[in-house]
């Protein structure tokens, strides 16, 4: 298999000096000190696991003989999805938001996992199911666009509405451009169905600190004012620098019920 990239594992991150380490593991906290005094930072720290929890989560994402991590199947209809035997999370977002890159980063310690991409225009878009040992499944939902075809909308709606084992939906938003009109399609769907979800800001290595802060604060305000089902803490990630990836693994482990306790750091 491929070698895992640098910083894919916590052990590598722990060798960095403190401030760099915080930026990689807790990228949102890194922004805190640039906020105006008096800004409410409570939503920055709702999920703040300690090292032990981060390590336990990482072990789930590291495959070995007794713990296989595999692509299972693809489906265009929810009734073709694998049986809902395990807790499940799904990843959804506009085309090009960085979804395949993020899923590849999450699975970088299981290099045999193939994260397929079908980007050919006109190609049928599918849901791809991955199985993480006997612990949970992760679904790569097809990317949506400005003119999402009706059959796509129906597939996603049916999945979100009917999938009984779905524990959390991760809605990816581009960290450079922020929340777009097309993202509202997904937000409205999730809100209408009353499904718990969380927003993930991608490609943060490409956004200047100012742009990132603006997008973070805008989205936090949006979440507070307009949503019921969205977790108030944003997750920031870069698949290039690996920032936020370890924390996201930990949150996935947590929401799928695979971390008995999450002690504060
Ligand atoms: P998808 O359509 O949502 O699966 O998006 P991809 O993962 O294919 O990413 C779209 C483009 O953004 C590609 O050119 C990626 O190389 C780039 N990209 C994705 N994630 C990141 C990131 O974290 N940082 C940077 N700089 N580029 C990224």
UniProtKB/TrEMBL annotation:
<dbReference type="InterPro" id="IPR030393">
    <property type="entry name" value="G_ENGB_dom"/>
</dbReference>
<dbReference type="InterPro" id="IPR052279">
    <property type="entry name" value="EngB_GTPase"/>
</dbReference>
<dbReference type="Pfam" id="PF01926">
    <property type="entry name" value="MMR_HSR1"/>
</dbReference>
<keyword id="KW-0547">Nucleotide-binding</keyword>
<protein>
    <recommendedName>
        <fullName>GTP-binding protein 8</fullName>
    </recommendedName>
</protein>
<dbReference type="InterPro" id="IPR027417">
    <property type="entry name" value="P-loop_NTPase"/>
</dbReference>
<dbReference type="InterPro" id="IPR006073">
    <property type="entry name" value="GTP-bd"/>
</dbReference>
<keyword id="KW-0460">Magnesium</keyword>
<dbReference type="InterPro" id="IPR019987">
    <property type="entry name" value="GTP-bd_ribosome_bio_YsxC"/>
</dbReference>
<dbReference type="GO" id="GO:0046872">
    <property type="term" value="F:metal ion binding"/>
</dbReference>
<comment type="similarity">
    <text>Belongs to the TRAFAC class TrmE-Era-EngA-EngB-Septin-like GTPase superfamily. EngB GTPase family.</text>
</comment>
<feature type="domain" description="EngB-type G">
    <location>
        <begin position="85"/>
        <end position="258"/>
    </location>
</feature>
<dbReference type="GO" id="GO:0005739">
    <property type="term" value="C:mitochondrion"/>
</dbReference>
<keyword id="KW-0342">GTP-binding</keyword>
<dbReference type="GO" id="GO:0005525">
    <property type="term" value="F:GTP binding"/>
</dbReference>
<keyword id="KW-0479">Metal-binding</keyword>
């Amino acid at each position: 298999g491929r070698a895992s990239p640098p910083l894919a594992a916590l052990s590598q991150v722990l060798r960095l000096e403190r401030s760099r380490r915080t930026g990689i593991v807790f990228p949102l906290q890194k922004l805190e000190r640039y906020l105006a005094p008096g800004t409410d930072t409570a939503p920055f720290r709702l999920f703040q696991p300690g090292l032990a929890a981060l390590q336990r989560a990482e072990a789930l994402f590291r495959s070995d003989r007794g713990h296989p991590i595999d692509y299972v199947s693809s489906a265009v209809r929810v009734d073709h999805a694998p049986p809902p035997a395990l807790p499940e999370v799904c990843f959804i977002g506009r085309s090009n938001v960085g979804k395949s890159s993020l899923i590849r980063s999450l699975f970088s310690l299981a290099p045999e996992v193939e994260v397929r991409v079908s980007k050919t225009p006109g190609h049928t878009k599918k849901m791809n199911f991955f199985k993480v040992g006997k612990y949970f499944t992760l679904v790569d939902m097809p990317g949506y666009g400005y003119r999402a075809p009706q059959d796509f909308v129906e597939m996603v709606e049916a999945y979100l509405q009917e999938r009984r084992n779905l524990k959390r939906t991760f809605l990816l938003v581009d960290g450079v451009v922020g929340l777009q009109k097309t993202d509202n399609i997904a937000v409205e769907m999730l809100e209408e169905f009353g499904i718990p979800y969380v927003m993930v800001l991608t490609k943060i290595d490409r956004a200047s600190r100012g742009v990132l802060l603006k997008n973070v604060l805008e989205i936090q305000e949006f979440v507070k004012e307009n949503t019921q089902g969205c977790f108030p803490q944003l997750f920031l990630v870069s698949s290039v620098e690996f920032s936020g990836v370890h924390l996201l693994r930990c949150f996935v482990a947590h929401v799928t019920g695979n971390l008995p306790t999450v002690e504060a750091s």
